[in-house]
Amino acid sequence: MFVDTDPYPFTKVLEEAYPQIKRELLALSQETFQAWPERFLYGVGWDVFGLQAFGQKIEENCKKCPETFRAVSQVPKMTTAGFSKLQPGTEIVPHQGYTNQVLRCHLGLITPKDCALKVGEETRSWEEGKCFIFDDTVLHSAWNRSDSQRIVLLIDFER
After folding, report:
1. Which of 38, 69, 144, 149 has minimal Cβ neighbours within 10 Å of its Cβ?
2. Beta pairing class for 150-158 and 102-110
3. Dihedral of CA 70/74/78/82: which sign?
């Protein structure tokens, strides 16, 4: 299920930082992205550039994106943050997160048409510069049916 962003003021901070975040994203080499580890969910075409993973800051990557890390550091109880890229034609099969102790936020950065996230029975498309939050313990799937990359800033935070 999607969650109302109003109780989470950090979403406004992220949206205001969108221009700087996108600028840092575009300056990254494509080779710095790594395949999302759970390949059984998608096959190929889902890559990430981590800033923080399971509470541990990834120093080298944060140095490449200091404004982005500054923005995500405003998220209370943030556990994971990074860029999530779906290549054209990539589909992530329906799956559920492992713990109900976190929520997931996405900030749209590069959001072509024909890309969407389905959480439960609701489907939403990303918008550049806008956040949404969802409960990833609810069955969800994502797809990029466009001819260009979809990239979001992905942040997990404790409820």
Report:
1. 38
2. antiparallel
3. negative
Give the pLDDT of residue 116: 98
Confidence band (pLDDT; 50, 70, 90) for 42?
A: confident
Task: Output b/e per residue, 53-65; b: 16+ Cβ within 10 A.
Answer: eeeeebeebbebb
Q: How many structural domains compose the chain?
A: 1
Give residues with Cβ within 8 angstroms of 158, minimum separation 6. Answer: 76, 77, 79, 101, 102
Q: Which helix (H) or strand (E) covers residue 49, if one does?
A: strand 46-53
| Whether 74 contacts 10, CB under 8 Å | yes
Give the CATH number of the domain where residue 19 resides: 2.60.120.330
Phi, psi of 145 (to 5 degrees): -100, 15
Continuous segment of H or E residues that includes residue 19: helix 18-27
pLDDT of the residue at 53? 92
87 lies in which domain range? 2-158
Contact 90, 144 (CB under 8 A): yes
- Is a pLDDT exceeding 90 seen at residue 33? yes
Residues in the chain: 159
